[in-house]
Amino acid sequence: MIRILPSAREDLAVGADFYETQAEGLGAYFLESLFGEIDKLHRYAGIHPIVFGYHRMLSERFPYAIYYLRDEDSTVVKAILDCRRDPEWIQARLGMQ
Length: 97
Prior knowledge:
Layout: E1 2-4, H1 6-22, H2 26-39, H3 41-44, E2 50-51, E3 54-58, E4 64-70, E5 75-82, H4 87-93
Parallel strand pairs: 1-5
Antiparallel strand pairs: 2-3, 3-4, 4-5
Helix pairs in contact: 1-2
């Protein structure tokens, strides 16, 4: 089971809004791409490196990372963040500082 926390859903909304301002339809493509990446966690959760205390899966099409935790029964997506952000900001956003 994959659970996307409200914080990660907000990250997706912010990213989609940003890309939609860049080109019409790009926001929807962003969401489609990132949800496709999240769906891959059904199969591949737990294989990604741990960064800032979370598994980090990099998006194939956008400069975004999906930060998640894995246990025996579920995968919890904590954040979906722009990799171009300051690493200190990312750590703070993940609650690491």
